[in-house]
Amino acid sequence: MRKLILYIAASANGKIADANGGVEWLEQIPNPDQLDYGYADFLKTVDTTIMGYSTYAQLISWDIEFPYIGLDNYVVTRKETPEDNGHVIFVKSDLETKIEELKSMTSDKDIWLEGGGSTNARMLEAGLVDEVRLFVMPIFLQSGIDLTAEMKENVMLGKPKVVVHSSGVVEMIYSLN
Questions:
Q1: 84, 102, 112, 173: most buried, per Cβ within 10 A?
Q2: Domain boundaries, given as residue ranges, for the chain
Q3: What is the pTM (predicted TM-score) of this model?
Q4: What CATH number should be reported for the domain whose range is 4-29+36-153?
């Protein structure tokens, strides 16, 4: 069975984006060794992405080509007529069933839960996340979007594997299922 992996960066105080949904603050983190923190290798292990609409809207607002062409991309939304770039499938209801369906599909690749905070919380609370790869950035953000915005229940993680990168970024890998 495929794994649903939450692979995400957060500030030291648990923010995944600033108050406007931006992630430009990530560029403030000194990275003299130009580390990608395993991102390129991780991307080779997934063939599907799941993201909330705000994450998707932020992504398509950048002046770049959609970065996940060739992957199956699902966007969680409550909007009636969301803006479509032709590379995503919108999921408006029964997300949990859709995730279970995707996880049971035959594939040697996993599913990337990309955020945002509400989608993260929903998937964690439903017990659908198999692994969390959390990159804690050495910065406190004044305000912003929480890693698990709107979470209503506690979710235990257990003991992580920890890697401290030369840039001060702390990578924590939790196995949940």
A1: 112
A2: 4-29+36-153
A3: 0.94
A4: 3.40.430.10
